[in-house]
Design a protein that fits this description.
Layout lengths: L1 E2 L2 H7 L16 E5 L14 E6 L2 E6 L7 E11 L7 E6 L7 E7 L8 E5 L1 H4 L2 E4 L5 H5 L13 E3 H7 L4 E10 L5 E9 L2 E7 L24 H7 L7
């Protein structure tokens, strides 16, 4: 991930930038797709898809089956106490299902992820529910065990923070599905006071094609290392 340096470059060139409003906002943090996604956490299935569109990320599923899911995560090391109220800036282009926000959490601070908190404000407001595969001690310590949420273990983020003061977030991301048909664009992810947008991964040399680097390129996408290396060959070498 990287932060935009346009303002810094302009200042270095002697250009005056006038910031208006009560305060200047921090530059967006850019997520490289797919290189900044955590492969071990990825749960994008056969009929779930994503694609960079301008600075947003289009996510969509083809139907309502178990393979209709697109879920990706970005690594972080942020105390749960400091994440604020994360949200997805999402444009629903289909009228179908919408993605939920996902927080992969180490609830006891021992360095191991124990469960995922899911936020779906369009359905449950500011209530965040715990995934069913979470550790039992997290389920037992959940703020609420009543019905009316995505699972029997849920609460607001403030309640989760009070229940698990040592908790830290290991990754954040989104999930559409499974079993949900939807199509839309995540314009940005708001997390811990930062705004995250998206960009293609473009390789700049044939050396970057090696050691699996060819598979990280999304503009263009390559079928194998040889095709990647060939794309950087001079016309006379082709």
């Amino acid at each position: 991930m990287r932060r935009s340096t346009a303002a810094a470059g302009a200042l270095a060139a002697g250009i005056t930038i006038l910031f208006t409003g009560p305060a200047a906002q921090a530059a967006d943090t850019v997520i490289g797709v797919p290189s900044d996604f955590v492969p071990a956490l990825s749960d994008t299935r056969a009929t779930g898809h994503y694609q960079v569109v301008s600075t947003g990320l289009r996510v969509w599923t083809e139907g309502k089956t178990s393979t209709d899911k697109v879920a990706e995560y970005v690594a972080t090391d942020t105390p749960l106490a400091e994440v604020g109220e994360p949200s997805l800036d999402y444009t629903n282009t289909s009228g179908g299902g919408v993605p939920g926000f996902q927080l992969v959490v180490d609830f006891d601070g021992n360095g191991t992820s124990d469960g995922i908190l899911i936020g779906e404000p369009g359905v449950y407001g500011n209530d965040w529910w715990l995934n069913n595969a979470a550790a039992q001690f997290v389920k037992d310590g959940a703020p609420s065990h009543t019905g009316g949420s995505g699972s029997a273990n849920h609460g607001t983020l403030d309640q989760w923070r009070d229940a698990f003061p040592a908790a830290g977030v290991d990754a954040f991301g989104f999930s559409l599905g499974s079993g949900v048909k939807g199509d839309g664009i995540i314009e940005a992810i708001e997390f811990a006071g930062a705004r995250y947008t998206f960009e293609h991964v473009r390789l700049s040399s044939k050396q970057q094609c090696k050691d699996g680097g060819w598979a990280t390129s999304t503009d263009p996408a390559f079928r194998n290392q040889g095709e990647c290396v060939s794309s950087f060959a001079k016309p006379a070498e082709r």
